[in-house]
Amino acid sequence: LSLLASIIVCQGTFTNPEEGKFIYWKYDPLWYKTLVMEALRGMGQIFMITAPAMLTVKLLGGQEGALGIIQSSGNILLVIVFYGIARLTTPKHRIWIFFAGLGFFAIGSFCNALFFNAVGSLTFIACSVLASALIECSFSPVLMLVIDILSQKEKRNKFAYLLNNEIALYAGRF
């Protein structure tokens, strides 16, 4: 897959983005709200990444091979779900997709807390995979739209917002 992607990129006629300043200290108030949301998203992501791994290792007998199989299967399911959602929905569905993601995460957490065994752990992992797909599918287009609008409004490079966004995301993960 990486080799195929490399060939496609090498054969493409892509243009480099304009070079310019991309570190700024003052932004529109909307961007500061977006950064808070991104930091909160980072906090949620770190839990959704580490909790399934810890649960799998603890509740499934410490077999790290089982962890790899479960995560690989979950990622395959994630790709299929993400593709289907992106093809079947429109922007008016984003808030419902977001709430569905939160609902799956709550259901998985509830099952894990209720049973706290291998079945509860696997249910949590499955629900977590679906939740992450739904939340990312609803949140990412909104973030890109905010970046497009603010980069035009403030006449700045889009990479300034992307850099700032990644800093907020990693701050939340920390």
Structure description:
- The protein has about 170 residues and is mainly α.
- It is built from six helices and no strands.
- It has helices at about 1-10, 30-60, 65-90, 95-115, 120-155, 160-174.
- The chain is globular, with a radius of gyration of 19 Å.
What is the fold's blueprint, element by element?
Layout: H1 2-11, H2 29-59, H3 64-88, H4 94-115, H5 118-153, H6 158-173
Q: What can be said about this structure in brief?
A:
The protein is mainly α.
Approximate shape: globular
* Rg, nearest Å: 19 Å
Secondary-structure-derived class: mainly alpha
| Alpha carbon gap, first and last residue | 31 Å
- Portion in helices: over 70%
Give unreliable regions as ranges.
Answer: none
Which features characterize this protein?
mainly alpha; 174 residues; 80% helix
